[in-house]
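User: Please run a holo structure prediction.
Assistant: Happy to. Please share the sequence and the ligand.
User: Here you go; the ligand is zinc ion.
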Amino acid sequence: MRRGRRPRWMIKIALERMEILLQRAEEEFALHPERSHRYVEMARKIATKYNLKMPSSWRGRFCRNCNKFLKPGSNCQLRLKDSMVNIKCMECGEIMRKPYMKEKKAKRRSKIESRTFQEGTDA
Ligand SMILES: [Zn+2]
């Protein structure tokens, strides 16, 4: 098969399929973790085939080393360090880092919101 750029519609379908697989992985994890790992593998295969990145919303939800689906408190550990989250895969021991600025920003926003709310009720 010819290598190189794929048509846009094909990439769109590939992204959708990856999203579905990862959602399934999340749903199935409680009962069938081995299925979740399989879904991650399938999603990663699609990513490689179409030269795509895994959806950013799922970053840190699977191990880049052993491709296992990761569920905090179940088979991975989260540690906050500075503005990074260290994610340790309990399956193979791999440690991944990801910035948690998004979460931080959201927290700051909710703090500001609750403060303005309190000021309003106090008066
Ligand atoms: Zn791992």
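The chain has three helices and three strands.
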